[in-house]
Amino acid sequence: MKPPILALKNVRLADGPKMLFDGVDLAVEPRSRACLVGRNGAGKSTLLKILAGQIQADDGERSIQPATRITYVPQEPEITGETLLDYVTLGGAEPHRGEAALDMFGMDPSKPATGLSGGEIRRAALARAFAEEPDVLLLDEPTNHLDILAIETLETELASMRSALVIVSHDRAFLGRVTNRSFWLEHRKVRRLDKGFVEFDAWVERVLAAEAEEGRKLDKLLEKEEYWLQRGVTGRRARNEGRRRALMDLRKTKVERLREVRGDLSMGIASSGMSGQRVAEVKGISKSFGERTLVKDFSTRILRGDRVAIVGPNGAGKTTMVKLLLGELAPDEGSVNLGANLEIAYIDQARADLKPEMMLRDVLTPLGGDQVMVRGQPKHVAAYAKEFLFTDQQLRQPVRSLSGGERNRLLLARALATPANLLVLDEPTNDLDMDTLDLLEDLLADYEGTLILVSHDRDFIDRLATSTIALDGRGKVVETPGGWQDFLSQNPGFFRAIAAPSAPAPKSAPAKTEAAKPTKLSYKDQRRLQELEAAIAALPGKITKLEADLADPGLYARDFAAFERINKSLEAARRELSSAEDEWLGLEERREALEASR
Q: Which of 109, 225, 250, 325 would bridge with 506, disulfide CB 3.0–4.6 Å?
């Protein structure tokens, strides 16, 4: 192992009467890629700032190799300068590197640096970090406010960077793809695993089990119970196998229903007479705003108990789709028929529904008293709040005292206690630590009603969704049984037309930049080349399976509709393979020509 280029030794820091770090040791080796994991309030962001040299510890040592360049991207970056190019080059990056980094994230270098959305602020800050080409890159929640396409862009670029990385993030899929080292901040110290986040959960389980066993041997039963009570959320990470099987069964049922919907939406629905059994039946809906079409000829059926994820890039129309499904927005064409007696609980990512002066207890018990009705059963408010990691003391505190993650937890607690058969969550994972995410997954998995989930968290979608609705922002909408990975495998290249758009060159670009000839494929073409290679590898297997299905001698007579569907799918797959091979060949020849011109 190489010697560290940045290290902390026996670091201590107090925040008023609270001790945050009590003997923290942490070493960052060249090109290592580490995640820093811990509960909300453990001090992860503060530790990053100590590594960056922005905060001085009370005690201990911070060592850094000479000439080491460190770039820190905080949770809430402040964008300054007249244009994005001005901002990106403030740290000394050369203009052409700033332009390339902004282009990578689909941003115009000449765009004013004011009035930016949350996603634009995040992309600009990341572009600046890449343009500076640091030796150590510290990222605090880098995927917040990014859509899935931007997250995948970030993953790809981080994989090719030479920088050492330390990342704080709640996005499991992201951490699993980019890290090879794990730091666990727990009980004011840091433990280290020389493997990436993929191995983190299993490692934590082993550590907790060993410590609990040691507590048993010492016959400290009370201490052990308190220990597991405080860490119970982490202990839930061993997924319940029965729950997993139930999710798989729901996905299979969704497959059959989608076949029915696509075949004949005019057919009647058998009703059990149970209130809320049918949530929505959607037939051929379209919706445009001006000349822009967001949804075109989309049909689906949602029944009670379904968990539907809605995905797509920022601005693709995810919120519009939710409003269409809920009947809050009328489609231009088609129809939406809602079930009777729907009771809806909605949580938006703005969290605008919480008043700062309200006490936590009053939020959970708006009619007074000390009981909360949860799925028809009374529960003491303190016991219910504890399930969402709130203490008795916090119940008497105002909402303004809560962190972003705690406010999100409070909204979830109230929504899940509200008598409702339809729960709509818009980016519910923002600002939540992984322990709380595990708790939320458990609660939603046990939720008896229907869930509509708008999220960019791919792992969260994979663990919960029975089907995924994807929008490309240009009218095309597809629904796939299963989660994000199921959608990707069945719809390769769905977002390719809008992935990483190239930004126009700034008006003030110097002549030598305008005259420079490219020596390699653009990022957009490199990404497309990877997509084509994946499709070319996957399509032959799909074609073989379809051919085998079609070879069934009794299929034509037994199920003519299935025969036609498989035949059309086979023709489409063959066309897609031929087109992918032709496009790949053209890009590969261009790549070779550009490399030869260097």
A: 109
What are the two backbone dihedrals, phi and then psi, of residue 129, each rounded to the nearest 5 degrees? -60, -45
Distance separating alpha carbons of residues 530 and 538, to the nearest angstrom:
12
| Confidence grade of residue 255 (pLDDT, cut at 50, 70, 90) | low
Q: Which residue has the tokens 């402040």?
A: 78
Beta bridge partners of 467: 308, 481
Give per-residue pLDDT as tens, 384-398. Answer: 888 887 888 888 888
Q: Are 333 and 284 in contact (CB under 8 A)?
A: yes
At what angle are helices 148-160 and 118-132 packed, to 10 degrees?
10
Q: How far is CA 109 from CA 33, 118, 143, in A?
A: 29, 17, 21
Q: Which residues pair with 13 in a beta bridge?
A: 21
The DSSP bridge partners found for residue 559 are none
- The sheet carrying 307-311 orders its strands as 344-347, 422-426, 450-454, 307-311, 467-471, 477-481
Residue 89, Ramachandran bin (φ over 0: left; ψ between -120 and 50: alpha; else beta): alpha
Going along the chain from its start, the domains and CATH numbers come out as: 6-205 (3.40.50.300), 343-420 (no CATH), 517-596 (1.10.287.380)
Query: For helices 434-445 and 404-417, what crossing angle results, to 10°?
Result: 10
